């Protein structure tokens, strides 16, 4: 079936850190576990898989492309949310004299209702957790993440 | 000139408050000033204007539609960011036994690069400020808002 239109979630944050450190926080398993979910598994190499566990639920990604200190690209793999099937995540880094900007894109959504608005807000929360982790040494990964509702 | 495609920012939060209270926080000037910007002026009546001041910068909206305890719709007026020209903001409320959900749409963007990703993140921050204000009595309106970069 041909896809007529897809939707993207986009965010941007500026982190007082080098692009090298930000890149590490997007590729090193131990550092990833400090801002998205505490239970992160796998190896960040192109063609390999990353698993982000939320108790007994796993969101799995294939690592599609890596450009050191510049770009990280994942694609959703078999496990995970139905709404996230075929979606992709890209982090693009660029630095100025004050900070490293992280430009975030979660693309390939078939719909921008349903889970989309919730995930849009939640991605902001996790990107702010990434910022906090790199600037203060302490992020807010799941299960310590900021709640955006009372579900 | 015909617009080919426009983009939307979407978010959703769940607030432990009645839809009546959430609606007030979106329509009462004093309550609005507790979560977006401390300097909010105008009157929330259909056809009237709201002004959100950030020191000497003003973002102005016309109130397009109001449905008590359900829906608020604004349209950008003459002043403000160029990227926000012709854009519109809609808040839709729905409650379940635990909370009032606020579904937020900022539509009519001509582009989803430029300011869009920054504003997407920043809207999440202000919606979380709205949630905090209604749940704890204290929001984080500008100039006390959470910074998402170091500009």
SSE blueprint:
Two copies of one chain form a homodimer.
Chain A: E1 7-15, H1 19-27, H2 29-32, E2 39-42, E3 49-54, E4 57-67, E5 71-76, E6 88-95, E7 100-109, H3 116-136
CATH class of chain A: Alpha Beta
Extended strand count of chain A = 7
CATH architectural group of chain A? 2-Layer Sandwich
Please give the radius of gyration of chain A in angstroms. 15 Å
Q: Tell me the name of the CATH homologous superfamily of chain A.
A: START domain
Classify the secondary structure makeup of chain A into a structural class. Answer: alpha+beta
Find the CATH topology of chain A. Alpha-D-Glucose-1,6-Bisphosphate, Chain A, domain 4
Count of spatially separate domains of chain A: 1
Multimer state: homodimer
Q: Strand-and-helix sequence of chain A, N→C?
A: EHHEEEEEEH
Mean pLDDT of chain A: 96
What are the low-pLDDT stretches of chain A, counting only 5+ consecutive residues below 50?
none
Which strand-content bin applies to the residues of chain A? 35-45%
Which geometry of chain A do the CA atoms define? globular
Span from first to last CA of chain A? Answer: 34 Å
Outline the biggest β-sheet of chain A: 7 strands, antiparallel
Chain pair with largest interface: A-B, 29 and 29 residues
- Strand ordering within the main sheet of chain A: 1-7-6-5-4-3-2
Name the helicity range of chain A.
10-25%
User: Number of helical segments of chain A?
Assistant: 3
Protein name (chains A, B): SRPBCC domain-containing protein
Pfam family, one (chains A, B): AHSA1
Domain Activator of Hsp90 ATPase homologue 1/2-like C-terminal (chains A, B): 17-135
Family (chains A, B): Belongs to the AHA1 family.
